[in-house]
Amino acid sequence: MNSKHWIRSPRETTDHVVGFRKTVSPKKPLRKATLSVSAIGIYAPYLNGVRIGKNVLAPGWTSYSHRVQYQTYDVTASLLSDSLLEIRVGQGWAVGYIGYAGTDHFTSDHTALIAELTLRYADGTEEQIVTDETWDVYELPILSTGIYHGETIDLTRSPVLLGKAVSDPTVNTRLVAQVGPDITEHECLAPVEIIKTPKGETVIDFGQNMTGYVEITVKGKPGDRIVLHHAEVLDRDGNFYTENYRGARNENIYILDGKADLFKPSFSFQGFRYVELVECPEELIRAEHFRAVAVHSEMKRTGFSHCGESQRRRRVL
Fold first, then answer.
1. Buried-most residue among 7, 25, 40, 306 (CB within 10 A)?
2. Can you give the residue ranges of every domain in the chain?
3. Domain 183-297, what fold?
């Protein structure tokens, strides 16, 4: 990738997620189309409204001032005439609050994007579409997002055009191809039970501690709010306990638009076993509406372990 093609929003967007959009159309029959992307922040690419790839939290956490990874996707089968390419960018580790550092803007005070769509035609010619000032920038209904603080999505809002992207010469880092496995979604866990704590809190227990996020599938009234807080343990009295999170809010807020909606974070994740429904319409508090999705590196299995009851007893003795 050419490191000269970084772009940013033309306006300050605080912690809103922005979408960089470009309509692309192959000029001839295609042989192959590949998209390479990176960001100062976290990005999520879409083509004609469909998420590209299965990895999440890209480009991953590196020492951003020294190197930033990029990912490459084969989009040959998805690229149609007048296709809409949208790449959404949130703060992530590079721009948002970092707990151990106790600060925002850990690497930069703004997000930035770089992308390169390479079209290889059947006749042997090639065309490249890069991020530049022709891309449109939208403020999206994802109102805030942070690795430690969580995500707020308001589906009653529509995207707002901010203008054309501007070149960002302030990004000074080395682009490298991804060196490790993708971060992807894995196991999906149903609630073990929904409980009322001694303090009267409504808490979903997913039965095990995990890293990932809660996926919600509901249809409520326009403007209904679902507010989730996350915890790894309950206190000795059985109440919701978050003091070990220190300054991290671990709060996801979803504002419904009245349609059948699916909510989950795209730019954040949590460590949790328990989820408190701080706000949720009573009729939507049903176990089938909630699933916990485990998120971790796509590790290759290298071995297996088998152990029977008799073997465990011998070890104890």
1. 40
2. 7-177, 183-297
3. Jelly Rolls (2.60.120)
